[in-house]
Design goal:
The chain is an alpha+beta fold and 324 residues long. The protein contains nine helices and 14 strands. Bound molecules: biotinyl-5-AMP. It is an enzyme of class 6 (ligase).
Length: 324
């Protein structure tokens, strides 16, 4: 039933604002006009606004801002990423679903989307706050033919894609904090978590988790992160279309990951540095076994942060929390 309803929505969306008669739809779908009408009612219940034009038929006026595959794939410009979408209304974590799908052989480019997560996670088993319907909680499965040492840069490449997408859909100018935070006015609006399935043959799958705060108000966040988190709506003052954001993000993700795989990190490194808040500034890098203070001088071709301490020594930082 869902599929006929979805096909009907697709048919109406693709008629580009032209009304399509109940009779014509009934013929095309091989069902009665009453059945068509029932599917129209079902779409209206899902939040689609459909105009019924006398003697002419049905016309879609607006579609709801859900992350359902149909909504995302209508108007999606990618060839690869997002052609296969797994959507669930709620889950523990899209990372868990994506890991399972990857193990079961899901193709590269598969995307998992949800409205809310009960156990969204950050790095080192930290909690990721995932308010229902207010953000984009997504995992992307990639199967790049690269050595495992090249995996960490996918976080940086993804960060560039996120910045480009936010710039395209809003007027905001996000900044990147090494390695995986996207900031607006110094507050975090996006976190990225890259996980790896690999064996003796190399990378089997990369699972790139992206959590984007879109339409939250301050009080939608857990009290303990209200001072450090923000959303696109809080910064721009406007409600932002999650659909458009996902479509744009998948597009840039496809372009930039392909560029990285085929041409290496060079150009992306330049883009990344231009968006970075970290480079050129004094920072404190907290690692599991030590904390270093100094100037962040840049990143290497491998995505390693170069930190110069007061004694003049240059340190390569592979993983840390950065304070500025
Ligand atoms: C991250 O970790 O920033 C990676 C977040 C990845 C989340 C996505 S959502 C889809 C996919 N499924 C998952 O289960 N995860 C991925 P980290 O750098 O460790 O930052 C975690 C810290 O960010 C927390 O300890 C909080 O301080 C803060 N935080 C938690 N939720 C936040 C939110 N919604 N917005 C901003 N900051 C948040």
């Amino acid at each position: 039933n869902i599929t006929v309803t979805h096909k009907l929505a697709k048919r109406l969306i693709e008629s580009n604002g032209e009304a399509v008669s109940g009779q014509q739809l009934a013929e095309e779908f091989g069902i009665s006009r009453t059945a068509i009408w029932k599917h129209i009612k079902e779409l209206e219940e899902k939040g689609y606004a459909i105009e019924s034009v006398k003697k002419k038929g049905y016309r879609i006026v607006s579609i709801p801002d859900t992350l359902e595959p149909l909504a995302i794939q209508t108007g999606l410009k990618t060839k690869h990423i997002g052609q296969n979408i797994e959507y669930v209304e709620s889950c523990s974590s899209t990372q868990i679903i994506a890991h399972k799908l990857a193990q079961e052989g899901a193709p590269g480019g598969t995307v998992v989307l949800t409205e809310t997560q009960t156990a969204g996670r950050g790095r080192m088993a930290r909690k990721w706050d995932s308010a229902a319907g207010k953000g984009v909680w997504m995992s992307v499965i990639l199967r790049p033919d690269v050595v495992p040492q090249k995996a960490p840069q996918f976080t940086l490449v993804t960060a560039v894609a996120v910045v480009r997408a936010i710039e395209e859909v809003t007027k905001l100018q996000p900044k990147i904090k090494w390695p995986n935070d996207i900031l607006l006015n110094g507050k975090k609006c996006t976190g990225i978590l890259t996980e790896l399935q690999s064996d003796a043959d190399g990378i089997q799958a990369l699972i790139i988790g992206i959590g984007l705060n879109i339409n939250q108000e301050k009080t939608d966040f857990d009290p303990e992160i209200q001072a450090i988190a923000t959303s696109l709506k809080m910064e721009s003052g406007d409600t932002v279309s999650r659909q458009k954001l996902v479509q744009s993000l998948l597009y840039y993700l496809e372009i930039y990951t392909q560029m990285y795989i085929e041409e290496g990190f060079g150009l992306l490194k330049v883009m990344w540095e231009s968006y970075s808040t970290t480079i050129g500034h004094p920072i404190r890098a907290r690692m599991t076994n030590q904390t270093l203070e100094g100037i962040a001088e840049g990143i290497t071709e491998d995505g390693v942060l170069q930190l110069r301490t007061a004694d003049g020594k240059l340190h390569g930082i592979y993983s840390a929390d950065i304070e500025m």
